[in-house]
Amino acid sequence: MAVPHGTKLNQLRALVRKHRAEIQGDTVGAAAAKATDTAKAESGKAWGGVASGWEWAVDQVKIGADAAWKKAEEVVAGRHKEL
Questions:
Q1: Is residue 22, in this structure, part of any structural domain at all?
Q2: Are 33 and 25 contacting, i.e. CB atoms less than 8 angstroms apart?
Q3: Can you tell me the distance from the alpha carbon of 26 to that of 32, in angstroms, rounded to the nearest whole number?
Q4: Total Cβ atoms within 10 A of residue 30
Q5: Contact at 8 Å (CB) between 75 and 82?
Q6: 7 dihedral zone (left: phi>0; alpha: psi -120 to 50; beta)
């Protein structure tokens, strides 16, 4: 129900006050959307760190396995006298 506020200017001011949060994006929905976006971004960073850490660990294992294999080949070929 519209309540008259006098002049057209006052009615316009009343409408702006009524819808100020929507105009400025300060609604609860906007705040929730911003919080969700922030949470997604932070979790993405965390998972990115885990993934890169996992890749590093796998690379280290591969390097170690390659070095052990080469050492075993050298021992079998008789190039080293140690086991």
A1: no
A2: no
A3: 10
A4: 13
A5: yes
A6: beta
Residue at 8 is within a domain: no
24 DSSP 8-state letter: H
DSSP string covering 38-55, please? Answer: HHHHHHHHHHHHHHHHHH
Q: Which domain holds residue 70?
A: 49-78
Place of tokens 């080293």: 80
Size of the chain in residues: 83
**How confident is the model over 51-75, as pLDDT tens digits?**
777 788 888 899 999 999 888 888 8
In this structure, is residue 28 part of a structural domain?
A: no
Interval 5-46: pLDDT, tens: 578 888 888 887 777 767 776 677 777 788 888 888 777 776
**What's the rounded Cα separation, in Å, for the pair 60 and 53?**
11
